[in-house]
Amino acid sequence: MVETVVSMELPVDEKLTIRKNRIMPAHPTGDEKRIAIVTGTHGDELEGQFVCYELLRRLKAEPGYLKGIVDVYPALNPLGIDSITRGIPMFDLDMNRIFPGNEEGPMMESVVYGLMEDLKGADLCVDIHASNIFLMELPQVRINELTAETLVPLAKKINVDFVWVHASATVLESTLAYSLNSIGTPTLVVEMGVGMRITKEYGYQLVEGILNVMKELGVWEGDVGEVRTPIVSTDREVGYLNADGAGIYVPHVKIGEQVEEGTLLGEILNPLTGDVEQSVTAPISGLVFTRREYPVVYSGSLLGRILGSSDKEKEADDNAEDGNI
Hints:
With 325 residues, the protein is of the alpha/beta class. 24% of the residues lie in helices and 31% in strands. The protein contains seven helices and 17 strands.
């Protein structure tokens, strides 16, 4: 059942309307658990649109297996999606920087307050993001270390490739996820794919993971495909690749590859002189989980990220080199 969550009058006889689709079990008891799937906070992030479609398709195809409530919010920022704009058009705002909002505040603060009121109390919220147009991200969950104890066990079940636990100092308190977690509504932030595109294989992967978490929570009783066990970044170094200068970046490895320290990952080319301006090599050994997709780069541009080996893996490698195993 499609419901209007928030509706605000705009100039020239228009409205800002945010809607959700609530899927209920055939015979509700009034004591069902509820999961919320949220996406479209940034108008240039479209990976979640396919996830919403595919999840709803699966639920409607086998309604008898649904035992809880599923709320799907495909477009928190419909104006941004319509205009292919990351933020909220006209207001010059990043929607994910004004939560939890204020009922009596300016228009957009009132809008996000209404969203918070509708989402709070869910047994789980999955907040789906894509990267921007410049970078491709391997499916991952990002978690504030302050909520890791609660959220990491859930993140391990949602079929992503790795879980990135961030230091609390790097986490913005004005995001939807932080605001919901702070009031006791468990919220997982999923980042995957690339801006303005849909990566279908990532979408299928995440839908399988959402169904798996729903099954764990007692919301779903249907079949679930194989779910991968993610790497958790707690004791792992993250290596950053940055451009030393301007040029055209051509990557030499695929996202998701395991690389060794010193491996050639790509080159920055000068199309005017025919020279290679920079050979980009891996600063550490590990998994390439972010890769530059947009080729034009400048000094300091992010080219990729590598998730390093854990302390135990490093120790095992050292022992192997020493002939101990």
